[in-house]
Every structure is written in structure tokens, then in C-alpha cells.
Specification:
globular; 1 helix; alpha+beta; five-stranded antiparallel sheet; single chain
Amino acid sequence: RLFEVSKTGRWRLLGIPLSFESTVYALEDWRSLEIRFRLKRPGAMSHMSGFWRIVPVGPQETLVLFYNEAVPSIPMPRLVRSFAGRAVQEMCASLLEDLRGASSTWAERPLAVKRPFSEDAD
């Protein structure tokens, strides 16, 4: 399934709040347990793409692989690149921590699975 997703990136650089909006095309592939994405239109970024992939490794354990590459629309001075690199690493780590925190609550609540075409469906 192909769909569009919009997001707003927000961070601070030397105390200055920055933000940008981006929309990506995302392609969901349940056979490979993967979502690939790419930038719909250049804006703050001239290129952005990547993927999320999940790899089941046990009955209650899943490895999540996340890859993202981006090229800003304006050249970044060398001094700013090191700050930006650390900010991106922290952002990715934070995103995966949020996923870990959310997934711990999923195990706590039972899922009501409704199969609309099964014999015992309402």
C-alpha cells in the first residue's frame, strides 16, 4: 500500500528553535515486514529516504531496523555539520526509545481481534 505521511521536524540549534515540514511517500510491504519512504517534494531537504524493517527474533521479541538518509537544500558550514550530525543521532535514538516505551504498553493490554469473515464474527 502506498500512502503519504507528513511530519514536522523541530529542534534547537545554538538555542534557536528550528522546524520544517516534510511529506513523504511511504510504501508498506507486509511480506518483507518493511516500510520504505522517500521525499514527495524537495523543501528543507533536497533528498530524504529510508526504511523501517521489523525482524521477529522470538515469541516476544522483535528487532527494529531504521535507516534514514537526508541531504539539506542549503549547504551546511563545516561547524554546523558536527552539531547537525549529533542532533540527527539523538533524534534517531529518541525515536527508537519512544518505540521501545510504546511497545512495552502493548504487551500489557489484551488485543480484541475481530475477524470479519470468520464464522464466529458478530
